[in-house]
Amino acid sequence: MNIAQSYLLRLQRKRWKIRAFRKRRELRSVQDRTGAIRPGNILLFATFRNEDIRLPYFFDYYRKLGVDHFLLVDNDSSDGGGDYAANQPDVSLWSTDAGYGNARFGIDWLTYLQSRYADGHWALTVDVDEFFVYPFCDTRPLAALGDWLDASEVRSFGTIMLDMYPKERVSTAVYERGTDPFAMANWFDAGNHMISRNKRLRNLWIQGGPRARAFFADRPAKAPALNKIPFVKWSKRYTYVSSTHMILPRGLNLVYDQQGGEKTSGVLLHAKFINIFGDRAAQEAARAEHYQKGNEYRRYTQDDPILWSEWSHQYVNWRQLEGLGLMSKGNWA
Amino acid sequence: MSVGVIMLVHTALDRAEQAIRHWVDGGCPVVVHVDQKVRPADYAAFVGSLADLPDVRFCKRHACDWGTWALVEATQSAAAHLLESFPTLQHIYLASGSCLPLRPVPDLRDYLAARPETDFIESTTTADVPWTVGGLDEERFTLRFPFSWRRQRKLFDFYVRLQQAVGYKRRIPENVVPHMGSQWWCLTGRTVAAILNDPKRTVYERYFRKVWIPDESYFQSLVRLHSTKVESRSLTLSKFDYQGKPHIFYDDHKALLRRSACFVARKIWPRADVLYDSFPVAMSGKEQFTEPNPSAADRIFAQAVERRTLGRPGLLMQSRFPSSDRDNAMTAGPYSVLQGLGDVFEGFEEWLAKTTGATVHGHLFAPDRAEFSGRGPLFAGGLSDNAMLRDYNPTNFLINLIWNTRGTHQAFQFGPRDTQDINWMVAKDTDARISVVSGAWMIPLFKARQEFSDLRKEAARLQQIEHEHLKILRSPYTNARVRVQSLAEFVLAPMDMLQLIVDEMSEQTHPRLTDVPQMADLTGLGAFLQDLRNQGMHPFLTGDFPANLERDSTLQTPRKPYLVR
């Protein structure tokens, strides 16, 4: 290993830890139930803004998987989602009206909360439109996965974000609060992902899916990253680098096997392409707080696309995704 | 009392208590060894919770680490305690706190009562076991291992290398033939007593203390000195993965465990409520005497290890990304790359698809778009025909295409007009079947009848590109199956190459081809090539076409003359 490079990464990690520590001042505690967190509990971290419509199903889904406590940051919602979240018995909520972009897209706030509360816990970091699927998730809770990874001395778990879309135009998938978004947006692209390795941080960089072909075909380098490492046995030394795409120390990014074998991995089903997407894209493009100044969102506002094709697959369960090679059981049986 | 149980416990004490109650209810006394590392308060609570059971005893405690001698000491202490308290035991079953009896304990007692002299213990010599961790098999008995593999890996490795370097070898005690096997055994009381009371016990102990992973070799070796009948298998269903870590059973394994008909399984996930609520379960009627049969579980876990170590060839994903120089098969199955044939024959793609049943694409790497079979904008897996998207990562595009269509043979046309970025990957791929008619790109130029100086320039460019490609195909790094013929050679006997292509695409020997595609009209090609030569270009990849080709009888009438043999 190149010592200079490794030292620079260390400095980078420290800098982000300090930055996150300073950003703690932007957070105001709304509801603190962290006293209820027990050793071994599984924690979920998320930031949201005006996502009230998504929250009920989000809580349902992750409670069923066995999340014990939600630690959430409400970024200045005006739709009542903050109050709804604060009233949940297993939620601790912070709020901030500071800029999402200035807080590294919310990562600074979460890094601070993670250093403070997640040390020694399995921590799941997701967006409220991302739904974690892992091998045997229909029969084994997250704690089973965490225990097994512990026994295997594995500290991080890799996924690919899978964009789900409806069969008709995106606007026709009318979402109702509390329901399963994948009842309508249940189609996906199975085999058009492009992967390269980031030599510096050692993570894989995955692009592709319907977003790349429908919105970024002429500028593929700008297509959004789909590699995510959402499930980590947290230590207060750790910090995510860019969303949950990369993490430091960089050894945690080695969630893939390089000798031909398959490590155990999962999928984040992404419930982006439903009817609230069009309005949201327009708002976010105007706000320009997202990655690349909301450039991605500006592209989405262009029309109301049909992403479906005869080659799309309809979602069934994790075993289907495993068979298609979108995730792997590895040696977990 | 016929069967006594030794139970080693270090975690999930509530589940251990549950298991102990099953054993006691089934009429087996239990001696429990609780790891010294369990906190005193927890230990006291655990002992208290079992206070109502007079046949449960607790033995001297040792601090146990994975693969250390302390585990053997714990077993010895518990065994001695058990034999002292219940001297008439016929069999002793070694279990752990995460073991769960699958069948009623009386079934096990009946089974053992019918085999009073048999010692059930997996015990094989090192030459015969494939599953050693860390690559040490023979040497685990001839070197010394004072350092922990888990916690002091560097010291451990260093000390092993040091001993290997100086050629150090321990002497194995007389009579002892090292055997190893699963830690979980069921021995007769007589055999256990004989091992514990062996006059040379201290000699053996001194030796096994410094052997690596003694808990898998101490009893396994010594049983060979004292037993009258060793049955080398474990009655406990317990599988290990490639890291030497036990596979864990969850609620969804219920049917698998039931079918295994094993008496005890380990390791059960402590929170597998369904398993703890369901087992032990009585076998119905005749099944009561079923022999344990763990083969289904064996298969599942063997597959899991294979998935982890070998993976699915040709799959690139978030948890499988082989270094390209490591893997010879980069794709999921054989595919054909056809260079030049589409120029030589008219309607070649359609003919090939009809003849072989394979999926035949046009120029997948054409400069303007990927010409998928059917020419749709998208193809299997959602691959796009957009050339910019494809050329962003062309090798990944091809690997995806082959993965997405696994089970059907893919073929595509290729040529020097196409993106060349895949050439090295395809050449190195053992799955690629590459057939080249070199110089065939000349035919469309010849037909184009454009400004001659433009044609000459284009011919030189294409020849240069194809020449570079052929250099790759001839390099020593090439693993693909490659056949190259110049256009001139090819037109003399086109059936030879076509037959080979068709045969390898349908993965079977085809009957001799009868329906053949129509060859382009090459009348005048010889003169065209001569014109190029006259202009100073040297079309060497096309081969030696006579300038007076028009007068060559074999090509005068290109309507299937080559069928006549």
From TrEMBL, chain A:
Keywords: Transferase. GO terms for molecular function: transferase activity. Pfam families: Glyco_tranf_2_4 (PF13704). This is Glycosyl transferase family 2. It comes from Yoonia sediminilitoris.
From TrEMBL, chain B:
It is found in: Endoplasmic reticulum membrane; Golgi apparatus membrane. Keywords: Disulfide bond, Endoplasmic reticulum, Glycoprotein, Glycosyltransferase, Golgi apparatus, Membrane, Metal-binding, Signal-anchor, Transferase, Transmembrane, Transmembrane helix. It is a single-pass type II membrane protein. GO terms for cellular component: membrane. GO terms for biological process: chondroitin sulfate proteoglycan biosynthetic process; heparan sulfate proteoglycan biosynthetic process. InterPro entries: DUF5927 (IPR045971), Glyco_trans_14 (IPR003406), XYLT (IPR043538). The keyword S-adenosyl-L-methionine does not apply. Its main location: endoplasmic reticulum. Residues 266-565 form the DUF5927 domain. This is Peptide O-xylosyltransferase. It comes from the Bacteria. One of its GO terms (molecular function) is protein xylosyltransferase activity. The keyword Membrane applies. Coiled coil: none annotated. The lineage of its organism: Bacteria, Pseudomonadati, Pseudomonadota, Alphaproteobacteria, Rhodobacterales.
